[in-house]
């Protein structure tokens, strides 16, 4: 499999800012940590950290993120948005949609979004509703705060690109890769360039104050489904009615209570 090369990535970039300050590493602990250190040292917005391998890759809810060396896109983006702290999630929404669109553009694979920040490939029923999901990518957003204001936002994404199908079961339950779904290897440098182009394009209206929430909500495969949401403290069952401006899931339980959930894992639930 081809390694990522700086010269090739730079030749493919179609952006003015995103990826122009590129930190390309063979191996690191976590690209999110490298991006946060760079942010604290004054790195500009648009800085992108990419690694072929992470030795301490992190997922949400304190989980590990494991990816075989040289097969995936493991990268972190540094934003310095003029947004209130409560809007940091907008960058997660933007990044998820940019990645889903870039994967579609480069590979033809249709990718759905699953609350709160997974990219999945869905099996659909005749009614068009998702019946099962396989996870293709995950997003981890971390913020730097100064005097109660957003100093920076680091959005890390791990996309399973060229992981051979036989290695998937050892990684995470329900994991898939673009290779497993399409049967073809994908050019990771071209995918990265397409992704950064989408990020840059989508960031212009966001910086002008336009929320990405409506488009993101409309693309969530989770909405309208009967689901179980596992949080760190409890499990909620009900219908996912929608999401609010901050990205919280609104879940209508059987007894009519509306729960507002900020984090958790969603699985489909069969009808009672
Ligand atoms: C999740 O689905 O739980 C989020 C996974 C995020 C993984 C990416 S890989 C690049 C960046 N560096 C990390 O340590 N994590 C994110």
Reported for the largest beta sheet, the result is: 7 strands, mixed
Shape, principal axes of CA atoms = globular
CATH homologous group name of the largest domain: Bira Bifunctional Protein, Domain 2
- Tally of structural domains: 2
Q: What class, by secondary structure content?
A: alpha+beta
Sketch the topology as an H/E string, one letter per element. Answer: HEHEEHEEEEHHHEEEEE
Descriptive account of the structure:
This protein is α+β, with helices and mostly antiparallel strands and 272 residues long. The chain folds into 2 domains: 6-218, Bira Bifunctional Protein, Domain 2 (BirA Bifunctional Protein, domain 2), CATH 3.30.930; 226-268, Roll (SH3 type barrels). The protein is 25% helix and 32% strand. The protein contains 6 helices and 12 strands. The protein has helices spanning 6-12, 31-40, 89-107, 178-182, 188-207, 213-219; strands at residues 22-28, 48-54, 73-79, 112-114, 118-124, 130-146, 149-159, 226-230, 235-243, 249-253, 258-261, 265-268. The strands form 2 sheets. Strands 1-2-3-7-6-5-4 form a 7-stranded mixed beta sheet. Strand 4 (112-114) and strand 5 (118-124) form a beta hairpin. The longest helix has 20 residues, at 188-207. It is globular and about 55 Å long. Bound molecules: biotin (BTN). Biotin (BTN) binds next to helix 2, strand 3, strand 6 and strand 7.
